[in-house]
């Protein structure tokens, strides 16, 4: 696939005289308000998710970064490769192909942290991976783009949004750091904040998705190939991340976490890079891809959460059938905490099939009888 999109060539992207669609030129005030509200709400959500992070567990991931290393391999190894293979398979035009490749080279987005909480994933690992991938993007994004565009003879100069990467890093680490501090000082209050933040995060995802579709409806490119890629790309990323985590013998909880981190990309960073690197006429042909990718990314996340909730309910029902007479007692007692439910699911999953562990783990702690689950077992 060799193309030359320099300024003097007769590339379709450069010779196009189309004007930017009216829908893409959103009113400045509306765009500013939407951006500010989104930033504030995301900061509050990340603060609430930070309330689930424990300093001891976070330090263990930093001290033994095997899970983070696998996550980075998925983020900057698998995702760019998947993007490149999709571009080749669908024979995309160069200007559209580069939009897919840029998306594959972006770091993980904060949307993965919200979905990780809902599937009882490892929040300490999730936030560590998002932070590390954002830092690594400073060098890995230009490196991956350079390597994968060598065979294309693509002479377009890319502008890496270093300022946007720095802002994303601050918006992630500062609220999470406050959340960790609140969880350390006031663990009881942090549980309430965490529940509220999880609900607000879900509502925020829906609002942002719908608003993004409405505000950019005029700029959507009805290209079937791009829509198909934006639909299957995040799904392939989730599956590939899960399989790689499973092959490297991580626990089921970490497999879920790495899977969600792999398929969830930073959409805002991709949009910023496209706007800085290409002309308005070129943006017309590629801007719909990151928007549609973000839409399918959120839809896939909700589907994964729904599937996991059904799986969790099935495990609990199976447990009740094995312990006759516990159903009534389970209904009469209060619901379990997320930590206790996660421990229960982890034990049952390990009994079903054990992927093993490839890194030194903390000594196993005996599960004491707690709440309705353990009362059923007695």
TrEMBL record:
Subcellular location: Membrane
Membrane spanning residue stretches: 32-53, 65-92, 98-118, 125-148, 160-184, 196-215, 227-246
Chain residue ranges for the region called Disordered: 321-341, 354-378
Gene3D superfamilies in alphabetical order: 1.20.1530.20
Primary subcellular site in the record, as a coarse category: membrane
UniProt keywords, alphabetically: Glycoprotein, Ion transport, Lipid transport, Membrane, Sodium, Sodium transport, Symport, Transmembrane, Transmembrane helix, Transport
Pfam families reported in the protein's UniProt record: SBF
GO CC terms of this entry: membrane
Source organism superkingdom: Eukaryota
GO terms assigned for molecular function: bile acid:sodium symporter activity
Membrane topology designation: Multi-pass membrane protein
Family under the similarity heading: Belongs to the bile acid:sodium symporter (BASS) (TC 2.A.28) family.
Protein's recorded name: Solute carrier family 10 member 6
């Amino acid at each position: 696939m060799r193309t030359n999109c320099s300024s003097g060539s007769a590339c379709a992207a450069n010779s196009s005289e189309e004007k930017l669609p009216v829908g893409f030129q959103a009113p400045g005030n509306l765009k500013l308000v939407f951006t500010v509200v989104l930033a504030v709400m995301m900061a509050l959500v990340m603060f609430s998710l930070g309330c689930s992070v424990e300093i001891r567990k976070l330090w263990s991931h930093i001290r033994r970064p095997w899970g983070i290393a696998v996550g980075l391999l998925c983020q900057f190894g698998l995702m760019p490769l998947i993007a490149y293979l999709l571009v080749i398979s669908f024979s995309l035009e160069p200007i559209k192909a580069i939009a897919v490749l840029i998306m594959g080279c972006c770091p993980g987005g904060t949307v993965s942290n919200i979905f990780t909480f809902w599937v009882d994933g490892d929040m300490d690992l999730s936030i560590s991976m998002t932070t590390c991938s954002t830092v690594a993007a400073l060098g890995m994004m230009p490196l991956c783009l350079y390597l994968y565009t060598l065979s294309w003879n693509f002479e377009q100069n890319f502008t890496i949004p270093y300022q946007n990467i720095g802002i994303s890093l601050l918006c992630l680490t500062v609220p999470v750091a406050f959340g960790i501090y609140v969880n350390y000082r006031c663990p009881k209050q942090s549980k309430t904040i965490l529940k509220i933040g999880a609900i607000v995060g879900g509502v925020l995802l829906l609002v942002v998705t719908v608003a993004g579709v409405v505000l950019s409806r005029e700029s959507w490119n009805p290209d079937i190939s791009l829509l198909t890629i934006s639909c299957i790309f995040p799904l392939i990323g989730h599956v590939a991340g899960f399989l790689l985590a499973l092959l490297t013998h991580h626990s089921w909880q970490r497999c879920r976490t790495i899977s969600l981190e792999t398929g969830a990309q930073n959409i805002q960073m991709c949009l910023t890079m496209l706007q800085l690197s290409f002309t308005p006429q070129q943006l017309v042909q590629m801007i719909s891809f990151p928007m549609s990718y973000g839409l399918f990314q959120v839809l896939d996340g909700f589907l994964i959460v729904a599937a996991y909730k059904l799986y969790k309910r099935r495990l609990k029902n199976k447990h009740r059938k094995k312990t006759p007479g516990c159903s009534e007692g389970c209904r009469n007692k209060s619901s379990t905490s997320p930590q206790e439910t996660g421990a229960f699911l982890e034990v049952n999953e390990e009994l079903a099939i054990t992927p093993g562990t490839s890194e030194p783990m903390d000594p196993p702690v005996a599960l004491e009888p707690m709440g309705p689950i353990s009362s059923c077992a007695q």
